[in-house]
């Protein structure tokens, strides 16, 4: 073999060896891209991304609600601050059980001829809280609480959050009424002023003139308290219901209406110095034989009972954490609270008080107009606090008419000799097939 042939053979052999060494896998290895890292893992040679704060959105959603401002609380208590002390305390307790307010109002409408102490006796076997049972003796209070559920819930929220702030607001309103010359002793009430001391402020107490007969005043806050100082928080207001204030002259802006023999319905009291409300256990047991004595703090202080909340949401996490573990209620309860018919009360055609506005949403009788001027609403006021919070009342009413009530209420109250603009029968609301009964709204 020649030298050239030997060289050629060596070259060919070398190429064969290289080709065999590389093979198909070797070629692909040279052309494939680098492997892709698994999902949610950083690429090679790069640090992992910084950890995100856990549940940022959830934490923001669960931020505690801001405390109510003093002027906001004054707007809430304005329509009830001039009630007799003991009755006022029971209204505040009952406001924390709005669904039971709905049930009690249905009972009152279904039994319009049962009144005063007899009404309290008739509901003895109902499962409502004792404070709610007591109010069947005072339908002129119970029905607006039902018609204005948004106000009722906000009042209860404020009271659960801080009893002292609510009672302090009541005292400020009474001082304003006195300064305006509209809070004095008369045939219906006895006003007692306890002067301030080195450690206490002036306390204004209101008692029935006759403990056996209790009158409930109805009034326009913008008249009784004088000029309202907080445009952002106008006072809640509803005209007096003619069924309970028939032809009542608004002397000094206050209508007294019918007195009720309902001394047996009173069991509460205001502890102005201690900043809370009290319960006379013996009197409470007379109203509700099943009254739970353990739901009274040392010294007789009232204690909220979550079981009577029946699933209605609390205002914020702090209140829910404090009371919510025993706050249970089914879908039927929630439907009743939102105004749908169902179990829990009489009152054919009632929608939990939402549909039975019956004048509770009137615009203060603006200009003395007929029905054209009446705009139903469950929240008789406007302002920042009237909305923005999703609750069981979503879509019930915007409350936009109330600010007009506040601005025009004074002239309308003076131009109308009676507190027109509400129900004219104890049954109120809708009658029969849903038509508005008892004269409806004026």
Account of the 3D structure:
The protein is mainly alpha-helical and 442 residues long. 36% of the residues lie in helices and 6% in strands. The strands form four sheets. A two-stranded antiparallel sheet has the order 1-2. A two-stranded antiparallel sheet has the order 3-4. Helix 5 packs across helix 8 (139-147) and helix 9 (149-161) packs across helix 10 (163-179). The model is unreliable at 25-31, 340-379 and 382-442 (pLDDT under 50).
Number of helices: 15
Number of domains: 1
Please summarize the sheet with the most strands. Answer: 2 strands, antiparallel
Low-confidence stretches: 25-31, 340-379, 382-442
Task: Measure the end-to-end span.
Answer: 130 Å
Q: Spell the H/E element sequence.
A: HHHHHHHHHHEEEHEEEHHHHEE
Shape verdict? elongated
Rg from Cα: 34 Å
Could you provide a short overview of the structure?
By secondary structure, the protein is mainly alpha-helical.
Task: Please give the structural blueprint.
Layout: H1 3-31, H2 56-61, H3 70-77, H4 85-94, H5 98-110, H6 116-122, H7 130-134, H8 139-147, H9 149-161, H10 163-179, E1 189-194, E2 203-208, E3 218-219, H11 221-224, E4 254-255, E5 268-271, E6 276-279, H12 281-287, H13 317-323, H14 331-338, H15 401-415, E7 430-431, E8 435-436
Antiparallel strand pairs: 1-2, 3-4, 5-6, 7-8
Helix pairs in contact: 3-10, 5-8, 9-10
């Amino acid at each position: 073999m020649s030298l050239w042939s030997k060289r050629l053979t060596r070259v060919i052999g070398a190429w064969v060896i290289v080709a065999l060494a590389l093979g198909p896998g070797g070629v692909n290895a040279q052309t494939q891209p680098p492997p892709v890292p698994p999902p949610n893992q950083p690429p090679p040679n790069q640090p992992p991304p910084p950890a995100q704060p856990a549940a940022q959105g959830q934490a923001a959603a669960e931020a505690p609600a801001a405390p109510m401002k003093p002027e906001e609380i004054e707007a809430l208590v304005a329509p009830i601050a001039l009630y007799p002390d003991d009755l006022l305390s029971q209204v505040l307790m009952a406001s924390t059980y709005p669904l039971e307010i709905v049930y009690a109002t249905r009972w009152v409408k279904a039994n319009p001829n049962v009144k005063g102490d007899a009404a309290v006796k008739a509901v003895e076997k109902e499962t409502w809280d004792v404070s709610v049972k007591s109010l069947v003796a005072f339908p002129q209070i119970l029905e607006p609480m039902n018609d204005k559920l948004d106000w009722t819930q906000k009042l209860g929220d404020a009271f659960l959050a801080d009893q002292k702030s609510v009672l302090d607001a009541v005292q400020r309103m009474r001082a304003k009424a006195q300064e305006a010359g509209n809070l004095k002793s008369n045939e219906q009430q006895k006003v007692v002023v306890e002067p301030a001391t080195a450690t206490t402020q002036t306390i204004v107490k209101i008692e029935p003139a006759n403990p056996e007969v209790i009158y409930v005043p109805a009034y326009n806050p913008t008249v009784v308290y004088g000029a309202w100082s907080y445009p952002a928080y106008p006072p809640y207001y509803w005209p007096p219901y003619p069924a309970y204030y028939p032809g009542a002259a608004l002397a000094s802006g206050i209508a007294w209406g019918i007195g009720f023999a309902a001394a047996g319905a009173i069991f509460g009291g205001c502890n102005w110095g201690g900043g809370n409300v009290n319960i006379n256990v013996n009197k409470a047991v007379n109203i509700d034989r099943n009254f739970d004595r353990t739901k009274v703090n040392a010294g007789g202080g009232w204690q909220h009972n979550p079981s009577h909340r029946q699933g209605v949401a609390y205002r914020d996490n702090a209140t829910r954490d404090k009371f919510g573990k025993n706050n249970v209620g089914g879908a039927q309860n929630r439907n009743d609270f939102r105004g749908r018919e169902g179990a829990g009360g009489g009152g054919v055609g009632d929608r939990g008080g939402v549909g039975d506005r019956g004048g509770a949403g009137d615009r203060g009788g603006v200009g003395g107009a007929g029905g054209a001027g009446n705009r139903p609403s469950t929240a008789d006021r406007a302002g920042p606090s009237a909305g923005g919070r999703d609750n069981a009342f979503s879509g019930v009413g915007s409350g936009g008419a109330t600010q007009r009530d506040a601005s025009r209420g004074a002239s309308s109250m003076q131009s109308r000799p009676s507190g027109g603009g509400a129900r004219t029968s104890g049954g109120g609301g809708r009658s029969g097939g849903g038509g508005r009964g008892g004269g409806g709204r004026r």
